[in-house]
Amino acid sequence: xxxxxxxxLPSAIFLMGPTATGKTDLAVALREHLPVExxxxxxxxxxxxxxxxxxxxxxxxxxxVPHRLIDIRDPLEPYSAADFSHDARKAMGEITASGRIPLLxxxxxxxxxxxxxxLADSPPADDKxxxxxxxxxxxKGWPYIHEQLALVDPESAAQLHPNHSQRIQRALEVYRVTxxxxxxxxxxxxxxxxxxxxxxxxYQLTQIALIPEDRLVxxxxxxxxxxxxxGQGFENEVRQLYQRGDLxxxxxxxxxxxxxxxxxxxxxxxxxxxxxxxxxAATRQLAKRQLTWLRKWSDLHEIQVDYSAGKEIIFDxxxxxxxxxxxxxxxxxxxxx
Length: 337
Fold this sequence. Notes:
- By secondary structure, the chain is an alpha/beta fold.
- The protein has helices at 3-6, 23-30, 59-64, 81-97, 109-117, 127-140, 142-152, 154-158, 165-178, 182-192, 215-231, 234-242, 259-266, 272-295, 311-327, 330-333, and strands at residues 11-16, 36-41, 67-68, 101-106, 204-212, 300-305.
């Protein structure tokens, strides 16, 4: 697409970053400066009843500043990157049609990537095969399932960490259902063209990420937030989900960071101290993976954040830097403000 045509496209913003960096606060503040509407990009926030452990915005805030794609699924229902991509495009279209700007905020990098790159078509899910794979994983572990995938689809396996359970499961499921590898389906789709093209074909996109200057300070923030969640009743929240009777730990919802560890505690697999230690460690690992994604991200405006200063000083600086970026982007040029 040439530049003159691209300038006619509506604007959109991606606001990314690792967990516990203050993305939601920044997104809410931007509404005071720009006609934006928020779309959540978070694989845990889509689930109803998963509020404390997902750091879901308070109901009062959501009433004042609505976030789309929050509380749209029961924890029993899987929600995929493909589901998100379709839902987000629909929400973006509605926001644009109303004369406002979609602001997509969150830390589920796979969702951002699916929207950014477009989606290839793939075979439908097969619950029976999926359950068989989950049973194998429960007995032998996900690294073993990763090894099985490597035997039939080494290309897909090479792109996945042995603990990326959901993606490993999907790739092996595709092969067992169709006899064709997921990588082969993807190659075919690249030749034919994606079912959904890159979002940059539809929007002028400005991508911003909050990057902590000091990883150790981020780790401290993560530990403090996890302890705060426990103080807010996280254990009771997961206990209610546990006692429903229809949920299990292999569901995507219950594999969410923090929820997995609390589930293990409630089922007496680990003790309370182990839950706390493993929950914090898993959240730190999540932040590390998010930063790894962002290091490879193209066309990204990074805002380096020093969390050692006072809270108000930090936030004012983040907001100021973000607005400087947006003032040079199509965002301001396409608004009357």
